[in-house]
Design the sequence.
C-alpha cells in the first residue's frame, strides 16, 4: 500500500461540516478513507449539544467535535491508551485549557518507571505537546504530541493525543464545559 504524506493525511482526516451537501460529500470520502473515519452524530451520545460535544472513539482512534453552534464539526486522528487497564470510558467534560502545558507523570507512571522526571516544561521534549484540555477525571487530558508516530496507535497512558496542529485547532474551538464521551 502506498504511504500517504502527513499533510495529505491531515487534510483528509479533518472535516468541517456546515451543510448537508458537504456532510454527504465528507461521508462518501470517509467511507473510502484508509483510516475508516466516518462522520458521527452528537445526538447518538448526548441529550443536548450545550457548549459543544466531543466523542473520543478508542476503537477507530478518532476524536469527533461538534461546536455549540450546531454547524461546526471536526474529526481528528488520535492516539489512545495502550491497554484496557489505562482506558477510562464514559462521560466527562473539559474543565481547563492550557497553552504550552508542563507534564507531570502520574503516580502510577512513576511507580512503573521511577526514572521519570518530576516534571517536563513546555517544549519539544514535553509529551503533552502544545495544548492540553483537562477533563474532570483526574490525570486525563486531550492534548497534543511532538511524537507524531503515536497518532493512530495505542500509545498513551490514558490520554487522548492529537497532532499539535490539530490540537491547536481544536483548542480554539472548545469551551470549558464542553461535554466529552470516551467510547
Sequence:
Amino acid at each position: 500500500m502506498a504511504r500517504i504524506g502527513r499533510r495529505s493525511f491531515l487534510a483528509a482526516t479533518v472535516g468541517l461540516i456546515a451543510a448537508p451537501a458537504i456532510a454527504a460529500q465528507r461521508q462518501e470520502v470517509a467511507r473510502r478513507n484508509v483510516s475508516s473515519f466516518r462522520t458521527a452524530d452528537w445526538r447518538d451520545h448526548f441529550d443536548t449539544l450545550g457548549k459543544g460535544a466531543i466523542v473520543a472513539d478508542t476503537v477507530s482512534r478518532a476524536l469527533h467535535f461538534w461546536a455549540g453552534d450546531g454547524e461546526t464539526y471536526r474529526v481528528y486522528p488520535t492516539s489512545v491508551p495502550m491497554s484496557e487497564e489505562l482506558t477510562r470510558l464514559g462521560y466527562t467534560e473539559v474543565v481547563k485549557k492550557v497553552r504550552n502545558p508542563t507534564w507531570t507523570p502520574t503516580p502510577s507512571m512513576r511507580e512503573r518507571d521511577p526514572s521519570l522526571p518530576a516534571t517536563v516544561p513546555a517544549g519539544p521534549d514535553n509529551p503533552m505537546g502544545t495544548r492540553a484540555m483537562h477533563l474532570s477525571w483526574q490525570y486525563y487530558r486531550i492534548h497534543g504530541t511532538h511524537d507524531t508516530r503515536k497518532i493512530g496507535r495505542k500509545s498513551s497512558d490514558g490520554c487522548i493525543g492529537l497532532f499539535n496542529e490539530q490540537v491547536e485547532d481544536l483548542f480554539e474551538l472548545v469551551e470549558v464545559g464542553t461535554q466529552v464521551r470516551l467510547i
In short: The chain has four helices and ten strands.
